[in-house]
UniProtKB/TrEMBL annotation:
Gene3D superfamilies: Bira Bifunctional Protein, Domain 2. InterPro entries: aa-tRNA-synth_II, aa-tRNA-synth_II/BPL/LPL, Phe-tRNA_ligase_II_N, Phe_tRNA_ligase_alpha1_bac, Phenylalanyl-tRNA_Synthase, tRNA-bd_arm. This is Phenylalanine--tRNA ligase alpha subunit. One of its GO terms (biological process) is phenylalanyl-tRNA aminoacylation. Residues 117-338 form the Aminoacyl-transfer RNA synthetases class-II family profile domain. It comes from Wansuia hejianensis.
């Protein structure tokens, strides 16, 4: 038994000292000390040893195990040290190489334009209000003086989810919701995404953004509307910007108008940008229709107000001289990085 144990230890020592990897060393450990290893087999054979010899043989097996385990640990530490040295040499960092430049993102042109519009109106005392994009027909149409079978419903090509629920075609429903709360006076701006069944082209999209404003107070006149929007145009496009109002029709305002601004490229002289007219159409506006006030629980005999709406993409296209709205949504880094 002694010779057998000495042979096992000698063979194990030789295998451990020649192991060149941790995996090879582990194979030696399993072969000698594992459940089916050589030393385990010796211990299982103790039943065949004479009772008086068992303590002596047991001691010999334990000494052999201790010796093998000690050498295993020493060789393992040596191999781990060598492995780490090789890894450090392989993964060394050359600090003289130029660093990789991190790509830093920035705001989208729409976001830049929206923040500019919000800054201007917040400076005038307006509050920014958000509303749901999935809206009731009641708020999207009826409370805005657009009843069932009104032609405007066809003109706006609405996406209907059910008979009474739509994807909002404008952000005006936010205004109706605020008015019916009855907290007067009101000076609010309602930006957000809207939806209409339009074909995608250079100036149309089924999903785009609007910024609409509303003022409700006593003694509000059309002069207040003109003064507010003239100041907005000057701050957005430059102090020399002039405004022009043309009669128009909107169901929720009366009287209504389209507002043009003098071309900020040519100063109103006429150029390719303004198609030679010297003016650029920018937004629609008007005095809030009395029936809209009645629908929202406001007395039109005591209060008046004005409303306006502008397409956010239109502002971005004009401000940055972009000739195709689709560029704003294609996520082409070559285009977006210009802003």
């Amino acid at each position: 038994m002694k010779e057998k144990l000495e042979a096992i230890v000698k063979k194990a020592m030789a295998s451990m000292n020649t192991a060149n990897s941790l995996d090879a060393l582990n194979e030696v450990r399993v072969d000698v000390l594992g459940k089916k290893g050589q030393l385990t087999a010796v211990l299982k054979g103790m039943k065949d040893v004479a009772p008086e010899e068992r303590p002596k043989v047991g001691q010999m097996v334990n000494d052999a195990r201790s010796s093998i385990e000690k050498t295993l640990e020493e060789v393992k530490e040596k191999l781990e040290r060598v492995h780490m040295e090789q890894k450090l040499a392989r993964e060394v960092i050359d600090v003289t190489l130029p660093a990789k430049k991190a790509a830093v993102g920035h705001r989208h042109p729409n976001t830049i334009a929206l923040e500019e519009v919000e800054r201007i109106f917040i400076g005038m005392g307006y509050e920014v209000v958000q509303g749901p994009e999935v809206e009731y027909d009641l708020y999207n149409f009826e409370k805005l003086n657009i009843p069932a079978n009104h032609p405007a419903k066809d003109e706006q090509d609405t996406f209907y989810i059910t008979k009474d629920i739509v994807l909002r075609t404008q952000t005006s429903p936010c205004q109706a919701r605020v008015m019916e709360q009855g907290r007067l006076p009101i000076r609010m701006l309602s930006p957000g995404r809207v939806f209409r069944s339009d074909e995608v082209d250079a100036t149309h999209s089924p999903s785009f953004h609007q910024v609409e404003g509303l003022v409700v107070d006593k003694h509000i006149t059309f002069a207040d509307l003109k003064g507010t929007l003239a100041q907005f145009a000057r701050e957005l496009f430059g102090p020399e910007t002039k405004t022009k109002f043309r009669p128009h029709h909107f169901p929720f305002t009366e009287p209504s108008a389209e507002m043009d601004v003098s071309c900020f490229k040519c100063g109103g002289k006429g150029c390719r940008f303004c198609k030679g007219s010297g003016w650029i159409e920018i937004l629609g506006c008007g005095m809030v229709h009395p029936h809209v006030f009645e629908m929202c629980g406001i007395d039109p005999e005591k209060y008046t107000g004005f409303a306006f709406g502008v397409g956010l993409e239109r502002i971005a296209l004009l401000k940055y001289e972009i000739d195709d709205m689709r560029l704003l949504y294609e996520n082409d880094y070559r285009f977006l990085k210009q802003f």
